[in-house]
């Protein structure tokens, strides 16, 4: 399936020739003595040819951010050039990649304390006060920074070259953007499931780092040694973020008494599904902890890696994958009196990042599906595709079954991992709750990458 990708502000182009700038006037595509170009002055007329000067204004240097004042061992920029006709600055990196940066975009993204609040990390500059014909008077390389004097307003901006490189080539910053390599799995995960110790998580953020890393990589994790009480389980969940309240409440402590009109509150078997497909923003993480199961049997828990199932479907039936990625399916929650929750619009089963086409969310709950409207031929295509999808989910190789027990909490990514259970007899007491997906990713990134690294992406 082909999807359109939005344009990045910093665009990589390889097709157009670059008129590079030298320390020697009028020398094209040659660097200085070390092959690098330290600074240029914009000409009054013409395009693409600049005369470079070394950065020498000490008073100006003292106002630069710390990262600019430190001299780098090597300059990552090999060439800077002006694209006057397109109002862009063109950079060739030392590995040969090239990027273009709109002048207006560069001025809008100045990170000095006048333009960007150092504490709140919010923009202070009025974007629309910037002249539409903004242009540099001079550009310089200083340490690991690109420094620009602006001709229109006399302002000086500095840009960390690593940050510039990432914005020009966002595919190189996958990890920082919260997209680590994931481990796809089937029933074989039973031999070595991801497990954390309750004490490690509660004792330090290093434990939270490892825990969120496991969840991000595998889509789920067990936590062993959790006291079988609601208070201990809630404290565990809140180590990641605050609990999301829904029409079921915030933190749950429930039995199969139909106190909420949902099949989850019965003893019935539940097929593999994701929760809250009826929300515009489905819940991100979900935790279950079996506190007790008396006078009965059954109730094994089912997990299915939705990303693995989607990869299988795409390989075996690409047309079905396309249908499930494009046909929008209504959903609702209407069992409780006074409640009928429906998303602001219908969503497909498989949802992708519109820029990278990467699968980011599975929304599958046939029990909560609403009425399918529209072209009945398209509806038939959806039924056929959904049948293939259900077949992949129900294969023995896809299903991971495990009997939960008191003292072992289960947490999983509701955007990726489907869950279910077998029917059971007796009385089970469960507790758990939801966390927003954005809050989970925030906690993952801060603990695994560090706040400083994360802030470089904003």
Automatic annotation (TrEMBL):
Keywords: Carnitine biosynthesis, Dioxygenase, Iron, Metal-binding, Oxidoreductase. Pfam families: GBBH-like_N, TauD. Residues 200-434 form the TauD/TfdA-like domain. One of its GO terms (molecular function) is iron ion binding. Residues 83-165 form the Gamma-butyrobetaine hydroxylase-like N-terminal domain. Its EC number is 1.14.11.8. One of its GO terms (cellular component) is mitochondrion. Signal peptide: none annotated. Pathway: Amine and polyamine biosynthesis; carnitine biosynthesis. GO terms for biological process: carnitine biosynthetic process. Its cofactor is L-ascorbate; Fe(2+). Belongs to the gamma-BBH/TMLD family. This is Trimethyllysine dioxygenase. It comes from Lasallia pustulata.
């Amino acid at each position: 399936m082909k999807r359109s990708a939005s344009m990045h502000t910093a665009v990589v182009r390889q097709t157009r020739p670059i008129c590079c700038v030298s320390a020697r006037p009028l020398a094209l595509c040659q660097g200085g003595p070390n092959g690098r170009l330290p600074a240029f002055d914009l000409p009054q007329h013409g395009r693409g040819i600049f005369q470079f000067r070394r950065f020498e204004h000490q008073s100006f240097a003292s106002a630069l951010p710390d990262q600019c004042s430190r001299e780098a061992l090597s300059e990552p920029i090999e060439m800077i050039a002006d694209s006057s006709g397109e109002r862009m600055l063109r950079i060739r990196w030392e590995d040969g990649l090239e990027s273009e940066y709109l002048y207006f975009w560069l001025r809008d993204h100045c990170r000095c304390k006048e333009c960007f609040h150092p504490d709140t990390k919010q923009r202070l500059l009025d974007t629309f006060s910037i002249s539409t014909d903004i242009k540099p008077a001079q550009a310089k390389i200083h340490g690991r920074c690109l420094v620009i004097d602006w001709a229109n307003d006399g302002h000086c901006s500095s840009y960390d070259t690593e940050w510039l490189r990432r914005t020009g080539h966002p595919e190189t910053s996958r990890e920082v953007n919260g997209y680590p390599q994931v481990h796809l799995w089937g029933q074989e995960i039973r031999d070595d499931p991801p497990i954390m110790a309750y004490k490690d998580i509660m004792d330090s953020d290093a434990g939270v780092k490892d825990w969120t890393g496991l969840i991000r990589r595998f889509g789920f994790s067990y936590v062993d040694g959790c006291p079988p009480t609601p208070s201990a389980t809630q404290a565990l969940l809140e180590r990641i973020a605050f609990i999301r309240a829904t029409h079921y409440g915030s933190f749950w402590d429930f039995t199969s008494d139909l106190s909420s009109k949902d099949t989850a509150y019965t003893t019935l078997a539940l097929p593999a599904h994701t929760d809250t497909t009826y929300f515009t923003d489905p819940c991100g993480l979900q935790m279950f902890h079996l506190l007790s199961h008396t006078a009965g049997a059954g109730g094994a828990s089912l997990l299915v890696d939705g990303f693995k199932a989607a990869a299988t479907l795409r390989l075996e039936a690409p047309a079905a994958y396309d249908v499930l990625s494009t046909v929008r399916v209504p959903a609702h929650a209407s069992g409780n009196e006074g409640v009928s929750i429906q998303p602001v619009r219908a969503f497909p089963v498989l949802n992708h990042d519109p820029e990278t086409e990467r699968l980011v969310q599975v929304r599958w709950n046939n029990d909560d599906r609403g009425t399918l409207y529209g072209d009945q031929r398209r509806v038939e295509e959806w039924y056929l595709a959904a049948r293939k999808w259900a077949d992949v989910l129900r294969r023995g190789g896809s299903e991971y079954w495990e009997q939960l027990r008191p003292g072992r909490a289960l947490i999983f990514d509701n955007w990726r991992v489907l869950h279910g259970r077998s029917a059971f007899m007796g009385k089970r007491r469960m507790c758990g709750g939801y966390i927003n997906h954005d809050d989970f990713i925030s906690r993952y990134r801060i603990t695994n990458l560090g706040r400083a690294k994360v802030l470089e992406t904003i």
